[in-house]
Specification:
With 286 residues, this protein is an alpha/beta fold. The chain contains eleven helices and eight strands. The chain has one domain: Thiamin diphosphate (ThDP)-binding fold, Pyr/PP domains (Rossmann fold).
């Protein structure tokens, strides 16, 4: 139980397991906000359910801790209500790719100007180590004692196939790369998706920090240019022996909120509603 006195004194601290990659993601998000010189009052961090989704409690911005898999629709609503806000949606691989998969697919295609950060630890950590949508085939978990029989989903390939306007991947074991990637994603005008490998030190003994460090390479250091959708798709299909991180694809195009006839005028919060009447509609229906 949270002691409200702790909140007032600033001693309320994260309760993630020691060594959890979520600490690094929280640090990276704070660094990104500082790097972009954003006022905390203009930032809203929205989350669903999971270890990752506790993050809005520990950052000095506006926040919303929602229900499982529903971070994206809430974040979408916040952005459409007030276009001036910087909206960051937080979720885990279970939250976004499991319970929230339908919202994920439709968010990719709408191109609303929000940022999605997925903490991908390839396990359901908060509920004690069950297989998630990104668990590697054959891994033994609480729900798959004989090993998983399903192939993991590929969120990067899904995002590229849907031609999301900004697609990137980073790693919680590299704070500088992660902070710069998050800052770049938030600054981008369009739907920005960043999948973050976030080792779970308690429940996932396979995909460890060392496991990733042996396999990860930086796309931008390899002089990869994220301006070709076919090249991005090929990169998204690279397996677990050699794992690319960085920006896979970036393409500026018209925002959903700038193309909608009502929203492009101004934010919903600034539109007058005192002259709105539903009497004609009621007369038609009744």
């Amino acid at each position: 139980m949270v002691d409200l006195n702790d909140l007032s004194t600033g001693s309320y601290v994260p309760d993630w397991c020691p060594g959890c990659g979520d600490y690094i993601i929280l640090n990276a998000l704070k660094r990104a906000i500082v790097k972009l010189n954003l006022n905390p009052k203009d930032v809203v961090v929205v989350s669903g359910i999971g270890c990752s989704s506790k993050l809005p409690q520990w950052i000095n911005t506006f926040g919303y801790h929602g229900v499982h898999g529903r971070g994206l629709p809430v974040g979408t609503g916040v952005k459409l209500a007030n276009k001036k806000l910087n909206v960051v949606v937080i979720g885990g691989d279970g939250d976004v790719y499991g319970e929230g998969m339908n919202h994920f697919i439709h968010a990719l295609r709408k191109n609303i100007n929000i940022t999605l950060l997925v903490h991908d630890n390839q396990i359901y950590a908060l509920t004690k180590g069950q297989a998630s949508p990104t668990t590697i085939r054959g891994d033994r978990t609480k729900t798959t004692p004989l090993g998983t029989f399903d192939d993991p989903i590929n969120p990067m390939a899904l995002a590229v196939a849907q031609r999301a306007s900004y697609i990137a991947r980073s790693f919680a074991g590299d704070l500088d790369h992660l902070a710069n990637t998050i800052a770049d994603a938030i600054a981008f005008k369009g739907f920005a998706f960043v999948n973050i490998f976030q080792p779970c030190v308690t429940w996932n003994k396979h995909n460890t920090y060392d496991w990733f460090k042996e396999r990860i390479y930086d796309l931008q250091k390899a002089r990869y240019k994220p301006n070709n959708i076919e090249r991005a798709f090929k990169k998204s299909l690279e397996g677990y022996e050699k794992i690319p991180v960085g920006v896979f694809f970036r393409e500026k195009r018209e925002l959903f909120e700038d193309s909608h006839p009502i929203l492009k005028k101004t934010s919903l919060v600034k539109q007058k509603i005192d002259d709105v009447s539903i009497n004609a509609l009621m007369d038609e229906l009744c």
